[in-house]
Specification:
Layout: H1 25-59, H2 68-84, H3 86-96, H4 108-124, H5 128-141, H6 146-164, H7 176-210, H8 228-237, H9 240-260, H10 263-270, H11 273-283, E1 285-291, E2 302-307, H12 314-330, H13 332-344, E3 359-360, H14 372-378, E4 388-389, H15 432-455
Parallel strand pairs: 3-4
Antiparallel strand pairs: 1-2
InterPro entries: DUF2515 (IPR019658)
Protein name: DUF2515 domain-containing protein
Pfam family, one: DUF2515
């Protein structure tokens, strides 16, 4: 089934809803109301379950390889960069924009490294699936690059969130215009982080191959001067935690003005109800599958990760990234399980990757449910012959080019220096039950939309057009 058939023609989008049986609107609403007490009880028990699971995981937590002396060195180097200012600072900004011809003085090995990185960036930055695979390959080749595995797992979540826009819980909720704009927001964030970070990681790979530091070439890829001392110290000490924190801070600042605070996305995505609903039901969750469903008596995977309440805040996103790093690399069970999952499960963008007992990537296996919430509760999230549709990402959206971006260096004051600190462990680091409740919330929103549609007497097919 090609989901993009008749889509993207002169900016017009068509989507089809499913038929929700012969139930009357009042029957759907009655079913929702009758199941609410059980849903409320389920919510309360879910929180207790996740707290208990988190406590067990935290008992085995280990010390991160954080070196405060190294962190002080990086902070001092960054403060010195800012103190220089004036003419020298303008020269550094100019260096950040140097074109390729200004690097002809480099030796042949360095020029070959630059050409290879350019080629790899064009090849691997096509879509979320290729980016996610590239991060994992680098981590497998260089396990000291902790951030690359963190980026792999977070990129998987970005792909799942994109596919959700076309999944079985989003129909009836979003217009095609809202779907496409939200997708562009998620895709652009994913692509720009990769565009900035991937050359940095590849410079390290080439430095290892040549046996000498190539980090003086960072400006060639428009990398912020903020990252220079992190890479210089990492080359000497291999302090994985410090480098990961530097990259977390850098990448979130990199997309702050270019995506999150961009006027277009502010007006059309961030402050719109569809995005707020999406945040309630998935966009603000990052899950790390660390125990497969078949090993759990409930038939569901165990999930580490975090739930963030305020996606739009820069400080909140940086704190989230540091929490995720601590969960992934400070809790042995989560790290080992996530690595096993990543190595054995290719990323497709479908949530069936980690929960095949609840989600299906095949539209032919799906039948309409008039009341998703009641069905999920009644069958303990093991639908009887019915799965929630979660399509592969490449069945939903084609490769999406984006317009050129501004190249200015975001590092202009000392605000970010205060974020250079050891990641701490969140109290809630297992979110298995919380994720289950998130799916249930979305199911109830879906059911309410189905009831409202029938109440308004709308037909089986709706058509919405718009140009993003």
């Amino acid at each position: 089934m090609k989901l993009l058939e008749n889509l993207r023609k002169e900016g017009q989008y068509v989507r089809h809803s499913e038929e929700y049986g012969e139930e009357k609107p009042w029957e759907i609403w009655r079913g929702i109301l009758l199941s609410l007490p059980k849903a409320i009880w389920h919510s309360a028990s879910s929180k207790a379950s996740d707290l208990a699971g988190s406590s067990r995981l935290l008992l085995a937590k280990r010390e991160l390889d954080w070196n405060e002396t190294a962190a002080d060195f990086v902070r001092s180097a960054l403060e010195e960069q800012l103190k220089r200012g004036g003419q020298h600072g303008r020269q550094e900004q100019k260096y950040l924009h140097q074109p390729y011809k200004d690097y002809v003085h480099l030796c042949s090995e360095e020029q070959e490294a630059l050409a290879d990185i350019d080629l790899a960036l064009r090849r691997d930055n096509r879509n979320n699936v290729t980016r996610t695979a590239a991060y994992l390959k680098l981590y497998n080749d260089f396990p000291e690059l902790h951030w690359s595995f963190l980026a792999h797992m977070v990129s998987r979540n970005a792909g799942w969130n994109m596919s959700d826009l076309k999944g079985g819980q989003a129909d009836l909720l979003l217009s095609e215009t809202d779907v496409y704009r939200t997708y562009r927001f998620l895709e652009r964030s994913n692509a720009l982080i990769f565009q900035d970070a991937y050359p940095q990681l590849l410079l390290y790979a080439h430095s290892k191959r040549l046996g000498k530091s190539l980090f003086h070439l960072l400006p060639r890829f428009h990398v912020s001067r903020f990252m220079q001392p992190f890479w210089e110290y990492f080359w000497l000490s291999r302090s994985s935690s410090l480098l990961a924190v530097g990259l977390i801070i850098n990448e979130q600042n990199y997309i702050e003005k270019r995506v999150v605070k961009h006027p277009f996305f502010q007006q059309t995505v961030m402050h719109k109800m569809p995005f707020l609903l999406g945040g309630l039901s998935g966009v603000n969750q990052v899950v790390f599958p660390f125990k497969p469903a078949e090993d759990n008596e409930r038939g569901e995977p165990r999930l580490g990760g975090r739930i963030m309440s305020h996606f739009a805040g820069l400080n909140a996103r940086i704190q989230l990234g540091k929490h995720l790093y601590a969960v992934l690399f400070g809790l042995p069970q989560v790290q080992q399980g996530a690595e096993q999952f990543a190595s054995s499960t290719p990323h497709t963008g479908s949530r069936a990757d980690y929960w095949p007992g609840l989600f299906s990537p095949c539209a032919g296996e799906i039948k309409a449910l008039p009341r998703q919430g009641s069905e999920l509760l009644q069958n303990r999230f093991r639908p009887d012959g019915t799965l929630i549709y979660s399509p592969p990402l490449m069945d939903c959206f084609e490769d999406t080019p984006y317009e050129p971006i501004s190249r200015e260096d975001w590092f202009q004051d000392d605000t970010a220096i205060g974020d250079i600190s050891i990641p701490d462990y969140p109290l809630l680091c297992e979110i298995t039950a919380g994720h289950r409740m998130d799916i249930l919330k979305r199911a109830y929103v879906h059911d309410a939309a189905a009831g409202a549609r029938k109440w308004n007497g709308k037909g089986q097919e709706t058509r919405e057009t718009g140009t993003p």
